[in-house]
Amino acid sequence: MTGYANASATPVSAPPAALHDRRGEARSPAPATPRIGVEIRSVNGRFLDIGLRLPDEFRALEPTLRELLTARFKRGKIELRLTGGAEADGAGTEPLPEQLAHLGQIESRVRELLPNARPLSVHEAMQWCRGAARAEAAGDVVLETAKRCIEGLAAARAREGERLAAILAERTAHLRTLAGAAEPLVPAAVARQQQRFIERWNDALEKTGATQTISREAAEERALHEAAAYTIRIDVAEELGRLRSHLDEIDRLLDKGGEVGKRLEFLIQELLREANTLGSKSTSIEMTAISVDMKVAIEQLREQVQNVE
Predict the structure, then answer these.
(1) Which of 161, 147, 187 is nearest to 67 (CA)?
(2) What is the pLDDT of residues 242-260, one digit of tens each?
(3) Where are the domains of the chain?
């Protein structure tokens, strides 16, 4: 299903009065965290395909975000985009001593293994410290914002699902109408074929001169036997009955709601099977036209069902 939702929040930074070093001296405020924005877009898809676009400092949240999306959605191509405002990027703040000490330890271990690695520049150190501070301060806020955005997307998809259910109900009603139109065509075809058999038998008896040895009643009885066998071959009552049964099940699933997409796809395959059989047993242009119309309606159903979760 298609859908769109967004949500935003501003992480709360620590108050300036609490920012002192171990000696009690005032230090520079922690880097301000930017306003967090989460956007989620969803388009139609038979399977669940999740794509995440996250800033580097929030890469650690990717598994958790995937779990949240997987738990809420089962189908569709979903893209989550996480952004942070540049106006609060903290470009003028100084990195904390603890951050620099930790970064120095990491650099030392790296240079032990890679002696030829170039030292970190001041700009790279400040970027790392700033990003680490942002991620630590905003991690919980990002997850809460993502949860609100996911619920917004679920609500948007639910609204689209209601519209799709109405469209599917129209298609099933159309198929019922076609099935009703096909039902009286079989007895009419049998009656025509029965009359044709009788005429052919009588014509054959007259041409061969067998009217003296075979009575007209016997010829008509044989024609009726042939017509009965013909009726069995072209009878579509079972196909129409199964088709109506599948339509009843589709209507039941649409009324029930929930995750019904895969079940609907299976029922669509069965509908197509019955429509094909109906066409193969056709003995008139009218029945063939009904079979073709059924296949068109079923294909329209299939296209819509692939969008249902």
Answers:
(1) 147
(2) 888 899 998 888 888 777 8
(3) 3-159, 186-235
